[in-house]
Specification:
This protein has 510 residues and is of the alpha+beta class. The protein has 3 domains: 43 residues; 156 residues, no CATH class; 175 residues, no CATH class. It is built from 7 helices and 25 strands. The protein has a 25-stranded mixed sheet that branches. Strand 9 and strand 10 form a beta hairpin. The longest helix has 65 residues.
Length: 510
């Protein structure tokens, strides 16, 4: 019995001891793990604080570094910027003392109300007035101001002004290597003036940039703007060197117009090139040669939708003198005077109303359609001493006679494009005319010439007759009332014209 009790006690003691040891081990492990986690957590918090302090300190030091140019002397900044712009960008700047330094969007100096100057043959003149000029800096060497470097130039709210004589200077500038650093222009205007300082056109400039592309070895000038209320894009590529290789591209999507020009200038300053104009369904290809401000040109495989045409001419640059002959073949000549045509808009701009511009353009076309009133058309467009006329323009019907414009004057009044002209009708064969008009025998009169003076409004397509003479004889009031039936040219057609002309014959007393 004693042995049994002793064995039982030993078993109990061993079991309790094992449980105690296991409990102690678990508890010790928990304490160890808790202590270890506490150390790891403290270590993580310590590392975060260090990282935060380092990052915060770095940002602070970086901001302090960016603000260093605030310590520069303003007079030194002004002189340094003008010097670097002249040396690196070929910009002769006359800056004001209104200079501030900003770090956003990137470090730059902002200069208010500055000017760009250009050397003329007689004096230095201003070609641009700039409201805001930003000079962006490379972010290095701020502690040593003598090593400061420009990154790019941004111009906004500027008015550029160029005379006709300045174009050659600008052209010569495009033949030299641009800066590798970009010049950007935004929300500005370009005023083109004649040599009397009268404004010819105003171009709105939305944005532009120019720089030298080292990879392509090209000067690049890209511009997006608006002229005559027409949005356009203009791109220039030029390769500086002994021979000047240049390409320009002008696009106006609303007009479905694009102009591509490629030229090469040799060492003798003679330029040869090709020009391609795409407009609606027409393609105008031109080959030209230019030397000593004289351009001789001719067409090369030009065509419209249904027919081809040819032209040749001569242009003198200064003073502007254009002599151009155009053969439209079978093209309808009156399409040139469509109310919304580019020609109308250009004339309304009054860019041609200038004493220093001389233009003589002759256009001829033929009609192969038997039912047309005319067979041959000769149209003359002349600009002389600031006045525009269509003198000696003719419509010829080989069977019946000729219609000729004399003493004409094209002008703009109250934003309307108006023509005043004498219209001389020379009748060749009365019998064929009466047959064409289906004139009754009782209304047929012996008439040789009809002279009219009229005003024509291109915008409204309205005609006003001022006076009429038939064979040098004045006509009756009734005759004038009938001829007023032609006033609304929108309603005129062959049937109506025949009816009204026959009425005129019937009331003419002869």
């Amino acid at each position: 019995m004693k042995k049994i009790v002793k064995k039982f006690n030993n078993f109990v003691n061993e079991t309790i001891f094992k449980v105690k040891n296991k409990t102690n081990d678990i508890f010790n492990n928990i304490l160890k793990n808790f202590s270890k986690n506490k150390k790891n957590k403290a270590s993580k918090i310590s590392r975060f604080n260090k990282s935060f302090i380092i990052i915060f300190s770095s940002i602070f030091l970086y901001l302090f570094y960016l603000l260093v140019p605030l310590l520069y002397d303003k007079n030194w900044v002004q002189a340094t910027i003008e010097e670097k712009l002249l040396n690196e960008f070929k910009i002769n700047l006359s800056s004001s003392s209104d200079i501030s330094y900003l770090i956003l969007p990137s470090p730059h100096f902002l200069i208010k109300d500055s000017k760009i100057l250009m050397d003329d043959t007689k004096k230095i003149k201003s070609i641009a007035e700039i409201k805001n000029l930003k000079i962006f800096l490379k972010q290095k060497n701020f502690f040593d101001k003598e090593k400061i470097e420009l990154k790019k130039v941004s111009i906004s709210n500027a008015n550029f002004s160029f005379l006709r004589n300045d174009f050659q200077i600008l052209s010569d500038a495009s033949n030299k290597i641009f800066s590798k650093k970009k010049i950007k222009i935004n929300n500005s205007k370009i005023f083109f003036k004649d040599n009397l300082d009268q404004i010819i056109t105003i171009t709105k400039l939305d944005k532009a940039e120019l720089f030298f592309d080292e990879s392509k070895l090209l000067n690049l000038f890209n511009l997006k703007g608006e002229i005559f209320a027409i949005p356009f894009i203009y791109n220039l590529k030029s390769r500086p060197g002994l021979g000047q290789d240049k390409e320009t591209n002008f696009k106006a999507k609303t007009l479905k117009l694009s102009i591509l020009n490629k030229s090469f200038e040799d060492k003798n300053k003679s330029t040869n090139g090709t020009n391609t104009i795409s407009f609606l369904n027409s393609i105008i290809n031109t080959q030209y040669e230019s030397k000593n401000k004289i351009v001789i040109f001719k067409s090369e495989n030009s065509k419209t939708k249904n027919s081809g045409y040819e032209y040749k001419g001569k242009l003198t640059i200064n003073p502007f003198d254009l002599n151009l002959n155009i053969d439209l073949k079978n093209y309808e000549i009156f399409r040139l005077f469509n109310v919304n045509s580019v020609l109308n808009e250009f004339i309304k701009s009054e860019a041609l109303i200038n004493d220093n511009i001389s233009i003589k353009i002759s256009v001829n076309s033929k009609s192969n359609y038997l039912n047309k009133i005319y067979h041959d058309a000769y149209f003359n467009f002349n600009v002389v001493n600031g006045k525009i006329n269509f003198n000696n323009s003719k419509l010829i019907n080989n069977n019946m006679g000729t219609l000729k414009l004399t003493n004409s004057n094209l002008y703009v009044e109250n934003n309307k494009l108006l023509l005043n002209s004498d219209l001389l009708i020379d009748i060749k064969d009365l019998d064929r005319l009466f047959s064409f008009l289906n004139t009754s025998k009782n209304s047929r009169k012996n008439i040789k010439k009809i002279l009219l003076n009229l005003n024509y409004d291109f915008l409204s397509n309205q005609i006003k007759f001022n006076y009429v003479k038939v064979d040098d004889n004045k006509v009756s009031e009734q005759f004038l009332n009938i001829i007023d039936g032609f006033n609304d040219n929108n309603l005129n057609n062959l049937t109506k014209s025949r009816r009204l002309i026959n009425k005129l014959f019937s009331v003419y007393e002869g």
